[in-house]
Design a protein that fits this description.
single chain; alpha+beta; 6-stranded antiparallel β-barrel; 7 helices; 14 strands; binds arginine
Length: about 350
C-alpha cells in the first residue's frame, strides 16, 4: 500500500471508529439515577456544590414572612408604581417598573446569552434566550429555548453561547463565545403545557470564568420557601411587547406561596412563581426565558412563562431548579469515556480491522 493510501485508509478508520466510540458515549451518558450513583466518581460533575457557608442562606426573619402575600390589587398599585411613561416630565423611562440597573451589577456575570449562530447582521441581534453557567461547559436554560414549534430539538450547529457581555449588543475583550456540543431539553418537556421547561447545553469547550464578567453560579441546595427574596436578570423585553434592551435589566422578586401559584393558568409541580409584592409590574418578559432567578447567590428558578408581563394579579412562572436538581446533575455530567480509554479502544479496533 502506498504512503498516501495508507494515510487515507487510517484516517477513514479513525473517523469510523471515533464515531462508533462516541455512539457508546451517548449510551453511557449517566442519564439514569442508578447509573449516575454507581459511576459518580468517573463522571465530570458540576463544579459548584453546596458550600458549608451557605447552609443557612435561606433562613428568614419572621417579619420577612409577613410580607409574603399574593400580588396586590391594581388600585393598590396605582398610587405607588412608576409607569412605563412618566407623565410628570413627559420622559420615556422605558422600564418594566422597578426593573433597574445598578451601577455595579454583581449578577450579570452569571447571565449568558443563548444565540443563533447565523441570521443576524450585528452582534447580539440573534439573542434567543438567557441562561447561566453551572460549570465551565454546562449552561442551564429553558427547554422551550431549545426546541422549535414542532418540539424538534434544535441542531447544536444552530446555537452558540455568549458570556461576559453585560451589553447584549457590544462585543468586548471580556466576551466569550462558544459553540454547542449537545442540546438537551428535558425529555418530558411539553410545549403545550410548558411542563418540565428546563434544559441543558453542553459546550464544545470551556468558558473561562474571570469572576468579574463571567462566573459559574451554584445550584440551589434547598427547597426555596415562599417569601424568599430573589432577583431575575435578563435582556428580555422592557415591557410587554416592548423592545429588548442592550444592557441587562434586573427585577427584584419574591417567591410566592404555592396556594397562590396554583391559581395561575398552567402552573404545575416543578414550577415556582414570583412577583414583586410592592409592584406588580416587576416581572420577567419575552427574551428573559432561560435566564436565572437568583436568590442568595444561587440559581433557584429558570424563566419560563407568564400571562403577558407585569400584569396585576399575576406572577412570572419559573422552572424550579431544586425540583430538577437530579435531572440537572445527571445530564450535566458528560461522563465521556476517559480519553486514554477512548484512544486504547480506537487503537484496538483499528488493529482488528487492519488484521482482516
Ligand atoms: N416565555 C418567555 C420567553 O421566552 C418568558 C416570559 C416570562 N413571562 C413572565 N411574565 N414572567 O422569553
Amino acid at each position: 500500500m502506498g504512503v498516501s493510501k495508507f494515510v487515507v485508509y487510517n484516517l477513514f478508520l479513525l473517523v469510523f471508529v471515533d464515531q462508533l466510540v462516541s455512539g457508546f458515549d451517548q449510551l453511557w451518558n449517566c442519564s439514569t439515577h442508578i447509573e449516575f450513583a454507581s459511576r459518580e466518581r468517573n463522571c465530570h460533575t458540576l463544579y459548584q456544590r453546596r458550600s458549608p457557608a451557605s447552609v443557612d442562606s435561606f433562613s428568614m426573619a419572621p417579619s420577612d414572612m409577613s410580607q409574603v402575600h399574593a400580588p396586590q390589587t391594581q388600585s393598590d398599585n396605582f398610587s405607588q408604581n412608576s409607569s412605563t411613561y412618566d407623565e410628570d416630565d413627559g420622559e420615556f423611562h422605558f422600564l418594566v417598573t422597578n426593573g433597574y440597573r445598578p451601577e455595579e451589577d454583581d449578577l450579570v456575570k452569571f447571565l449568558v446569552s443563548v444565540r443563533l449562530r447565523q441570521g443576524s447582521k450585528f452582534f447580539g441581534g440573534d439573542h434567543l434566550c438567557g441562561g447561566c453557567l453551572i460549570s465551565r461547559t454546562v449552561v442551564l436554560t429553558a427547554a422551550h429555548c431549545l426546541v422549535d414549534e414542532s418540539e424538534t430539538v434544535l441542531s447544536r450547529n444552530k446555537l452558540k453561547v455568549v458570556a461576559g457581555t453585560p451589553r447584549r449588543l457590544l462585543e468586548t475583550s471580556s466576551t466569550q463565545q462558544i459553540k454547542v456540543k449537545k442540546v438537551r431539553p428535558h425529555p418530558e418537556f411539553s410545549a403545550d403545557t410548558l411542563i418540565n421547561d428546563i434544559g441543558i447545553l453542553l459546550l464544545k469547550s470551556e468558558m473561562q470564568p474571570d469572576g468579574r464578567f463571567v462566573a459559574i453560579i451554584p445550584l440551589v441546595d434547598k427547597d426555596p420557601p415562599a417569601g424568599l427574596k430573589c432577583t431575575v436578570i435578563g435582556w428580555g423585553a422592557i415591557f410587554e411587547n416592548g423592545p429588548l434592551p442592550d444592557e441587562a435589566i434586573r427585577g427584584d422578586l419574591t417567591i410566592l406561596p404555592n396556594e397562590f401559584c396554583y391559581s395561575l393558568n398552567f402552573f404545575e409541580k416543578g414550577m415556582i412563581c414570583a412577583s414583586n409584592p410592592k409592584d406588580f409590574e416587576v416581572d420577567s418578559c419575552q427574551g428573559d426565558s432561560g435566564g436565572p432567578l437568583i436568590c442568595a447567590g444561587k440559581v433557584v428558578g429558570i424563566v419560563s412563562f407568564g400571562n403577558g408581563c407585569g400584569r396585576p394579579f399575576s406572577a412570572g412562572v419559573y422552572a424550579d431548579v431544586y425540583y430538577y436538581r437530579s435531572w440537572i446533575e445527571h445530564n450535566a455530567a458528560t461522563c465521556p469515556l476517559a480519553s486514554w480509554f477512548r484512544l486504547l479502544l480506537i487503537t484496538l479496533v483499528m488493529q482488528v480491522l487492519r488484521a482482516h
